[in-house]
Amino acid sequence: GAGVSQTPSNKVTEKGKYVELRCDPISGHTALYWYRQSLGQGPEFLIYFQGTGAADDSGLPNDRFFAVRPEGSVSTLKIQRTERGDSAVYLCASSAGRNTEAFFGQGTRLTVV
Amino acid sequence: AQSVSQHNHHVILSEAASLELGCNYSYGGTVNLFWYVQYPGQHLQLLLKYFSGDPLVKGIKGFEAEFIKSKFSFNLRKPSVQWSDTAEYFCAVEGSQGNLIFGKGTKLSVKP
Predict the structure, then answer these.
(1) Residues of A with CB below 8 A from B99's CB?
(2) Residue B2: which pLDDT band, with cuts at 50, 70 and 90?
(3) Which of B71, B60, B17 is nearest to B36 (CA)?
(4) CB atoms within 10 A of CB B69
(5) Which residues of chain A are at the B interface, by a Cβ-Cβ cutoff of 8 Å?
(6) Which residues partner with A34 through β-bridges?
(7) Rounded Cα distance, B112 and B109, in Å
């Protein structure tokens, strides 16, 4: 597709469950970023992939959060044992590298009940 | 650590009024700066960016921003707003890995 695609657009899950959020970046973009946006806040950086490897995961809040990008394209953000505080919009962005524009997806709104 | 401050949480203007949204960043070295906009129900879109060169940057839809290094500022301006400019505006600085560090955002409401 022409833009960054995220699925699902909405996800409601029960506390304690496991969720996976998917990001399809723009074809050819080597850099992929995950952000989390809570209500009333700007997006906060979670993790950065350059190709298949996680180059910087310093933004992941704790070890319940994990992300992969096995073939250097699609990425999956995985959250174990979800908590109500994980409720937020999770955004994915891709770019051709530093000093280039990052393109954002529409986000996945995660609600933990 | 780098951080970004946006001074206004919510700005309400009438159409044709002039707009200035404040943004200050914390890092004193070379910076890449951005303004993103999020229209209701849409994804974040780049309005304009500053990497180097002319500190007055022109963006889409008549927006511009001025980089003032001595003030650590990158304020967004538009001479005459339209109802369609109603959106949330985010200032961001690029981190060491190309990630973006965002401010909390400013909601702009333009009354027709």
Answers:
(1) 33, 45, 48, 56, 59
(2) confident
(3) B60
(4) 11
(5) 3-4, 31, 33, 35, 40-45, 48, 55-56, 59, 91, 93, 95, 97-99, 101-102, 104-107
(6) A47, A92
(7) 10
What's the CA gap between B2 and A57, in Å, rounded? 17
The type of residue at B61 is: K
- Chain B residues whose beta carbon lies within 8 Å of the beta carbon of residue A107: 43
Which of B6, B95, B102 is nearest residue A43 as measured by Cβ atoms?
B102
Query: What does each C-alpha distance from A106 to A22, B30, B56, B75 come to in angstroms?
Result: 12, 30, 30, 26
Interface contact flag, B104 A105, Cβ < 8 Å: no
| Cβ within 8 Å, pair A97-B49 | no
Which residues sit opposite A35 in a β-bridge? A45, A91
Could you tell me the two tokens for B40?
A: 């209701």
Question: How far, in Å, CA of B92 to CA of A39, rounded?
Answer: 18
pLDDT in tens, A49-107: 999 999 999 999 999 999 999 999 999 999 999 999 999 999 999 999 877 889 999 99
What's the mean pLDDT in B104-112? 96
